[in-house]
Amino acid sequence: MRFAMPLSRDDAFNVARVLSEALPYIQQFVGKTIVVKYGGNAMTEEALKNSFARDMVMLKLIGINPIVVHGGGPQIGDLLEKLKIESHFVNGMRVTNSEAMDVVEMVLGGLVNKDIVNLINQNGGHAMGLTGKDGHLIEARKLKVTQQTPEMQKPEIIDIGHVGEVAHINTSVLSMLTESDIIPVIAPIGVDDKGESYNINADLVAGKVAEAVKAEKLLLLTNIEGLKDKEGHILTGLTTTQVDDLIADGTIYGGMLPKIKCALDAVKAGVNTAHIIDGRVRHCTMLEIFTDEGVGTLITNQDD
Ligand SMILES: Nc1ncnc2c1ncn2[C@@H]1O[C@H](COP(=O)(O)OP(=O)(O)O)[C@@H](O)[C@H]1O
Ligand SMILES: CC(=O)N[C@@H](CCC(=O)OP(=O)(O)O)C(=O)O
Q: What is its EC number (predicted)?
């Protein structure tokens, strides 16, 4: 007895070809760790969320260790609005009073984190959710922010509440998980030595986690095709010196600034490559890791 083939011969050949072309990349990255920052803006559609979860499960099965750090800015904004708690941003950071901090912790550590964990598990993986409090993963300190308005003579340090930066990443809990079949999913909430909670920009946490675990790659998923020049062309293969020049001439601004800065810090600290990629493209992480073309902006630390 014979069963009908679900794919035509050409389609089946293409599947085999694509898998075969991925072989050198699989050989290069097996056993390595890849940190993936999954931003709130890339989490809007169910199909996208599902393709992201499948990619994480596939990486782990192949023998690559993904560590997910997620954002959730739009989701926090929605709940703050429903609860009528005022929220605004300074230098790309959400001003976070005690009331807003409770909401940040509920949304990031609860809803968003468990949604991603659940999706990965539904797709056959084993994910475990953590905030920076679990296993004392993210030691934080209060972020000092300076601001200068036209009325001010010189920049002043302003208080933006429970907003933190990473003081230290305790990798022991992550090693335990990555050495097993578990995919860690990290919410960007830190804690200081007095037990105070801090809301930390997810790009910053992803960069510091990548540095601490000596990741092979840092992938930053966002809501744009990549880093663009003034004419709108996607830039890739950038060195740290070229990025410094683009910041100096104003081509890189706003939300892209912390993203680029953490990508640069990560490659300067030894992460091999950082990639800013379009999280609105299905299977963008697989495309970036397993194809020559990739789907975004590559940053390396090779300045020669
Ligand atoms: N040179 C640039 N190339 C691309 N985007 C840029 C650039 N400079 C600033 N941006 C802005 O940065 C945004 C991405 O940052 P952000 O919205 O904070 O991302 P996320 O929410 O994914 O962390 C882009 O949507 C764009 O508006
Ligand atoms: C201090 C600060 O701004 N924290 C962010 C944390 C979430 C985040 O970074 O989410 P995205 O990656 O989706 O933007 C916030 O409150 O929105």
A: 2.7.2.8
